[in-house]
Amino acid sequence: VQLQAFGGGLVQAGGSLSLSCAASGRTFGVVAMGWFRQAPGKEREFVATVRWSAGSTYYADSVKGRFTISRDNAKSSVFLQMNSLQPEDTAVYYCAAKSVGSTRYDTWGQGTQVTVSS
Fold first, then answer.
1. If we measure between CA atoms, which residue out of 8, 21, 1 comes closest to residue 79?
2. What span, in angstroms and rounded, lies between the C-alpha atoms of 104 and 70?
3. Which residues contact 102 (CB under 8 A, 6 or more apart)?
4. Contact at 8 Å (CB) between 70 and 50?
5. What is the pLDDT of residues 11-42, one digit of tens each?
């Protein structure tokens, strides 16, 4: 599986951005896709995930109510709508996929920068 992320950019605090991630290759084995982020000087952290078949979603407490993850099974894509962005959301955002039988996200896309100015 290969992942390619799109979107990101610069936005003022309170604004919105949308990220998308397209999966290609042997996608039939994907059971979940998610978004993670890494701010400068910090470790990478979980943002949100969606289970591929059921569509159930999970969010980090820091983004609940502001971010929405969704998927398009037909297009093997996952999206992250980010609203009410704050400077602390500034980070490189990565999409990731978890394969059947895996206990961790085992495929990662390239990062995309999100910068929120105050």
1. 21
2. 20
3. 31
4. yes
5. 999 999 999 999 998 888 899 999 999 999 99
